[in-house]
């Protein structure tokens, strides 16, 4: 945080320096745009083939083949979800929330991609539908589906409160991945990563730049849907924070399940999907 009373006085041209207009770091027009019309046509013929429910304060994983759709649905009550994504055939390729944020902004919606970690850096999924897209940004600068938070975890809980709480999203995702892939718990833990905060309403305070959350506007029936660009395992934790209106990392909040549904447009359509290739950077890092 910045000091309320700075130790150093501003230079003579301080106001001038502050007045310089910002430029967008990564202008999105350099990115290849997804064919949303084509995808929505494809979606019309897709049929539901699988579903899994993340119970309150727990997580679940589901396989989504390349060329299929996965929908995260709010059921029963307002609830936020912490979402992880892995390449089904190489769990070290996983969702890269920080780079996705740099490319698409702090909060995602339709048309944005979920980018994977280095050295792959390719779209793992494309967001194709978002029933909360009407929310935009509110008067506090808040919005939904952020890639600015990390995931609630027992280590931060321990640091701040001194207690051990086992049903944070980090632990929930660890248990779910371990059981889905039959991995030892601590091996699975190393593969859990920063999330897409589905339905969570967050932002940074304008005056102090602090990360804030507020009650999610999500209601039962709302959903966020993705098109799988590669074969995926998707993990989803029903955050112990519930709608994240007050606190997380405890059993205090009302908590509801979240549903994940897989929609398949058919084997032929999936076979016709061209999977994005891994980054073509040569990885010599200046040694060549
Ligand atoms: Zn959480």
TrEMBL record:
This is Urea carboxylase-associated protein 1. It comes from the Bacteria. Residues 55-233 form the DUF1989 domain. InterPro entries: DUF1989 (IPR018959).
């Amino acid at each position: 945080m910045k000091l309320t009373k700075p130790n150093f006085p501003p230079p003579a041209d301080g106001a001038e320096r502050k007045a310089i207009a910002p430029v967008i770091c990564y202008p999105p027009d350099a990115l290849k745009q997804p064919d949303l019309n084509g995808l929505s046509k494809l979606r019309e013929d897709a049929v539901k083939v699988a579903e899994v429910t993340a119970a309150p304060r727990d997580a679940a994983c589901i396989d989504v083949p390349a060329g299929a759709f996965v929908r995260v649905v709010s059921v029963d009550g307002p609830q936020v979800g912490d979402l992880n994504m892995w390449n089904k055939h190489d769990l070290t390729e996983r969702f890269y929330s920080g780079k996705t944020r740099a490319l698409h902004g702090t909060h995602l919606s339709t048309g944005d991609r979920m980018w994977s970690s280095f050295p792959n850096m390719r779209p793992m999924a494309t967001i194709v539908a978002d029933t909360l897209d009407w929310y935009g940004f509110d008067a506090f600068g808040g919005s939904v589906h952020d890639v600015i938070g990390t995931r609630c975890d027992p280590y931060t809980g321990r640091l701040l409160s001194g207690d051990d709480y086992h049903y944070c999203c980090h632990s929930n995702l660890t248990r779910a991945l371990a059981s889905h892939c039959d991995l030892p718990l601590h091996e699975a833990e190393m593969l859990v990563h920063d999330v897409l905060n589905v339905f969570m309403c967050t932002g940074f305070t304008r005056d102090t730049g602090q990360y804030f959350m507020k009650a999610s506007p999500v209601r039962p029936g709302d959903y966020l849907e993705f098109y799988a660009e590669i074969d995926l395992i998707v993990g989803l934790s029903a955050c112990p924070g519930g709608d994240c209106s007050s606190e997380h990392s405890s059993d205090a909040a009302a908590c509801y399940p979240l549903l994940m549904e897989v929609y398949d447009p058919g084997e032929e359509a999936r076979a016709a999907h061209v999977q994005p290739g891994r980054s073509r950077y040569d990885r010599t890092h200046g040694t060549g």
